[in-house]
Amino acid sequence: MVENRPWLTLLRHLILLLGIFIIGLPIWVALVAATHPASDFVSGILPLWFGDQGWDNLKTALFNEVGLGVSVSASRMLWNSFVMAMVIAVGKIIISMMSAYAIVYFRFPLRRTCFWLIFITLMLPVEVRILPTYEVVSNLGMLNSYAGLTIPLIASATATFLFRQFFMSVPDSLLEAARMDGAGPIRFFKDILLPLSTNNIAALFVILFIYGWNQYLWPLLVTTDDQYYTIVMAIKRLMASDNGVVPWNLIMTTTILAMLPPVLVVLIMQKLFVKGLIEQEK
Amino acid sequence: MHDKSVFRHRLLPYLLVAPQLIITLVFFIWPAGQAFYQSFRVEDAFGFSTEFVWFENFIYLLSEPEYWTSVRVTAVFSGLVAVSGMALALLLAVMADKVVRAGRFYQTMLIWPYAVAPVVAAILWVMLLNPSIGIITYWLSKLGYQWNYVANSGQAMTLVVIASVWKQISYNFIFFIAGLQAIPRSLIEAAAIDGARPFRRFWQIVFPLLSPTAFFLLVVNVVYAFFDTFAIIHATTQGGPGNTTKTLVYKVYSDGFVGLDLGSSSAQSVLLMIMVIALTVVQFRYVEKRVQY
Known about the structure:
The complex is a heterodimer. Chain A has helices at residues 6-33, 54-63, 74-105, 111-120, 130-139, 146-154, 157-169, 172-180, 185-196, 198-213, 217-222, 231-239, 248-268, 270-281. By secondary structure, chain A is an all-alpha fold. The two termini of chain B are 25 Å apart. The longest helix of chain B has 34 residues, at 65-98. Chain B has 12 helices and 2 strands, in the order αββααααααααααα. Helices cover 72% and strands 2% of the residues of chain B.
């Protein structure tokens, strides 16, 4: 501390607490709303203190059909989201590592072409080429399948670049030593490069898991069968009730279920996640 | 690409790049080419007949007042999201940086919204600002302010900006905190000994040293406002009332999937792509020169 002025310190804490209050307010209200019976919302404004229906609402959301055009339970949607997030995270890490390994540790014809083809994808967010990508997936018969939900989102230039950067920073002497001991490319990868990358992989996994879990537009387009709905994309559908009474308690229970897994991942892996995020983007 | 000692192998490298390359070609390059191709064609909604029309889609699009409304909406929206999101995050980061004890607590409490999906952020704020049951709506009415984002375009914009900023603030915060912690303490102490007060120290030392971070965040935030806020708009205003929150990305979606106007939607995609690339290039070319490292 350069100087010590109590009122300044106090002001700092006040501003931070105010920030936390504003950021936390929606969660507080959502948690409270999830513990009330639906009838509590008809009369007027949202309650600010907990009711006693929390457990019932949770059971209803998890095991019954959610209703309002979603004829599948939240537990099924949580499972779909989990599969999607896991396949995207693991798939991206595997194929990015493989291609980065090839580009850094091998010289082969068309290496540059491969590199640029992958690089170009950085410029094309999925929202921009959404219609033709949808057509491709539809032509391949991949609508309403886990493959359709995940594979188009797996190719990722960012992850490839992260691994490329990291592999280039690995000292050459390691490779020389490994070769002197007679290790081939696969052995070098498995025994030396992979253990060195564990931190990168873990951090990337956290970021990609959240990315996959939170996908919205893509699942909205490729799933018309409720069995494949992800929880994040289905929430909005719950709001579309037109018979007057919006079941805010169930919507909020589902909303909390939808955000709990990624938030827990961030909180538990905080250090790794922050490090990975900053390394990834810089 | 610098020289690195490498393996010699004929087949293996191809096997290694194959999965990524196949997915990239099938789900990126091919659809992007398709978007370009379609942008030069007119197709009826059922796909029975198509015609190659060169730039007609673009000319028609650019003569449409609705498109320019969307351009203006996007500019205002991204500006508001980037500026207010970064300013708030910077304020919180500067405050948290100086707190020695409990710093970790504040950091944890401030970064978790990163993990929340944009659509979830939208639902949460819709609940708080709902015209009939919203608690903030209620507080505002106590203050004599009528809030109804469904009917009022300014309020609709406010709602989507609030939800977007709320979601993005933790991301900006993480980068500002990292940037602040990289500034050498000795610099600030030296300035303090020379009699510079906190405000002056911030503007003359900390802020310039933070400008690369701020520049990076500016690019990221504008791209975020362009693309990742689709879910927020889709779940709240759906572009309304009367197109006043219909951003360019939302228009691509609604013209393509709802309106089934493939030619126009593709033309919009192509323009959007050009815009994003141009934006990035311009920012790197001109802004970076004025940024101090």
